[in-house]
Amino acid sequence: MIIGVPKEIKTDEFRVGITPSGVRELVKPGNSVLIETGAGLGSGFEDSQYVQAGGTIVDNADELYGRSEMILKVKEPIEVEYARLREGQILFTYLHLAADKRLTEVLCEKKITALAYETLRVGRRLPLLEPMSEIAGRMATLFGAVHLGRYNGGSGRLLGGAVGVETNRVVVLGAGVAGKSAADAAAGLGAEVTMFDINIERLTYLRDVMSPRVSMMYSTHDAILNSIKDADLVIGTVLLPGAKAPKLITRDMLSVMKKGSVLVDVSIDQGGCFETSHATTHSHPTFEVDGIVHYCVANMPGMYPRTSTIALTNATLPYALKIASTPLEKLLEDPSMKDALNTYNGKITNEAVAIAHGIHYE
Question: Domain limits at 111?
Answer without folding.
Answer: 2-126+305-357
